[in-house]
Design goal:
- The protein has strands at about 10, 20-30, 40-45, 60, 65-70.
- It has about 70 residues and is an all-beta fold.
- The protein has a five-stranded antiparallel beta sheet with strand order 4-3-2-1-5, with no helix packed on it.
- The chain is globular, with a radius of gyration of 12 Å.
């Protein structure tokens, strides 16, 4: 998998019902009690099952999404 970038369009592998999302933050360090947490990102989904009420984004592990369109810079 190529490195995820802000602006990439993604599909959620673990919850396909949330639809298409856009990456709004990368390289997040999140500790949910595991010794070695994988890298996290924040995604705004069309129909999120959970989200941060401040910015509307959902924190996800990078390996929970599949890039369908890379951001153009």
């Amino acid at each position: 998998m190529s490195e995820l970038q802000i602006g990439d369009l993604v599909l959620c592998i673990t919850e396909p019902e949330v639809g298409i999302g856009i990456v709004i933050q990368t390289d997040m360090a999140v500790s949910w009690g595991q010794l070695h947490e994988p890298p996290c990102i924040k995604v705004c989904w069309r129909q999120p099952s959970f989200y941060d009420p401040v910015d509307g984004g959902s924190v996800m592990y990078e390996d929970e999404v599949k890039v369908i369109s890379e951001c153009r810079r």
